[in-house]
Specification:
Strand order of the largest sheet: 1-3-2
Number of helices: 3
Distance between the termini: 31 Å
Largest sheet: 3 strands, antiparallel
Structural class: alpha+beta
Shape: globular
Strand content: 5-15%
Number of strands: 3
Amino acid sequence: MFSQYQFIRLPQVIEITGLAKSSIYRLIEEGDFPKQIPLGTRSVGWVKSHVEDWCLERINVSRL
């Protein structure tokens, strides 16, 4: 159960999605990618399950 709430950092998000840093932040700005969560004063992370869900959604949309 803990893994669904696991935080990952940007390099892991890039590895999972295959997107560039600039593409990730553009998609966040457009409301099309999960927003990062502040972890400290100068660090952020993403919920791993949210990123994985986004990937699955993209796969499902491409199969229509």
